[in-house]
Amino acid sequence: MSESVIHVEGLGKRYRVGERERYLALRDVLARAVAAPFRRNGQRRTRDFLWALRDVSFDVRQGEVVGLIGRNGAGKTTLLKILSRITRPTEGFAEIHGRVGSLLEVGTGFHPELTGRENVYLSGAILGMSKREIGRKYDAIVDFAGVERFIDTPLKHFSTGMQMRLAFAVAAHLEPEILLVDEVLAVGDLEFQKKCLGKMQEVSESGRTIVFVSHQMNQIRRLCERVLWIDAGQIRESGPTGEVIAAYETSQVGPAAGGRGKCFLRWEVPGHGNVVRQLADEVVFRFELELAEPVSKGHLGVNIVNGDSVLLVGWGFENVEIPAGRQELTVRVPFLPLRPGAYTLLCTLFNRGNNLTDGEAIEHWSAVPPLVVDTQPVTHTQDRWAGVLNIPAELQVPSTDTVRTTVAES
């Protein structure tokens, strides 16, 4: 097993809320010291503190690609700043073994009055590159960033996206042993985001380590082997990418406890709990019910709804006959090409009987736990363009010799 290159133990970071400590002159310090013995306890203002991180411990081994996920304000960026030695922890420690390259904020290490060319050398030097090393990689950096035309223009005239592209290009060509990347890729255009993901894939395949923060779950699924879910400053869950993302997305859909309805007791995908793992295989839903009275000429509806309450697919079964007592119903679907994520399973049961015209609604059940689709993503890398289906596609491009086939990635 490869050695640990990042060791974090009991890490915590505390901030004071609502106050910013002003700079003090020597006379201010002396005045405070003189006045301190005469200050009454009741005159002291209580201070409110916020723990951005608390008791965080984990290890990252050499060559791993680890994703950090969680809501805004969970503590992900604070953690990367501590790992980058930008911020000091309040408690605990983080050991880093290897050359670190970090891209946390757009324009970090850049000066707005300097040209793009000058900023390449400045940023590279801050990241630990020698002038000779920067010169050797300069053309590749500028080409990757796609800013050749403006490279001798002061950076203050660059757009935010251009600054981000140049910053990522410098950090990526640093050839760090450990690369820390925050959610800065959201600023770039789609073509550049694809280049960035490709570069990070190249870095990971060379045996170097990446810690990657993103709200794009498709990117995390494609790039990361392991995921840390940070919630309210603490690690809520850590493990294989599919399992942790499934738990995270399930928490966004609804409660994970309870779930028993009036007649619906439970549901499952036999052998897999509430998770669908294979894209092209048959999916079996098994429902367990307990009926006080039999259902005659009934209707069973099974619907799948996403987190935005959009109905994605629904099935309706008519003239259903179900005896009273505890029963099992099985619904088979040839395949379920839904994009990976968590979904709500809605079940409706009506009893029409011999004397019922419109039918009697026995139950409208929102199944718990939610349905989790944990298949390999085969559509767009950007969540907003990936759609709701997960269907592979191939592109055929004619050439002079033969037809080249490319599997769609973005």
Could you outline the blueprint of secondary structure elements for this entry?
Elements: E1 4-17, H1 26-35, E2 48-61, E3 65-69, H2 76-83, E4 91-96, E5 100-103, H3 116-126, H4 131-145, H5 160-172, E6 178-181, H6 190-205, E7 209-213, H7 217-223, E8 226-231, E9 234-240, H8 241-253, E10 264-268, E11 275-276, E12 283-291, E13 295-305, E14 311-322, E15 325-333, E16 341-351, E17 360-366, E18 371-373, H9 383-386, E19 394-398, E20 403-407
Parallel strand pairs: 3-7, 3-8, 5-6, 6-7, 11-18
Antiparallel strand pairs: 1-2, 1-4, 8-9, 10-12, 12-15, 13-14, 13-16, 16-17, 16-18, 19-20
What this model shows, in words?
This protein has 410 residues and is an alpha/beta fold. It has 2 domains: 4-251, 3-Layer(aba) Sandwich (Rossmann fold); 264-373, Coagulation Factor XIII, Chain A, domain 1. It has 9 helices and 20 strands. It has helices at 26-35, 76-83, 116-126, 131-145, 160-172, 190-205, 217-223, 241-253, 383-386, and strands spanning 4-17, 48-61, 65-69, 91-96, 100-103, 178-181, 209-213, 226-231, 234-240, 264-268, 275-276, 283-291, 295-305, 311-322, 325-333, 341-351, 360-366, 371-373, 394-398, 403-407. Strands 5-6-7-3-8-9 form a 6-stranded mixed beta sheet, with helices on both faces. A hairpin with a 2-residue loop joins β8 and β9 (234-240). α3 (116-126) packs across α5, α4 packs across α5 (160-172) and α5 (160-172) packs parallel to α6 (190-205). The two termini are 34 Å apart.
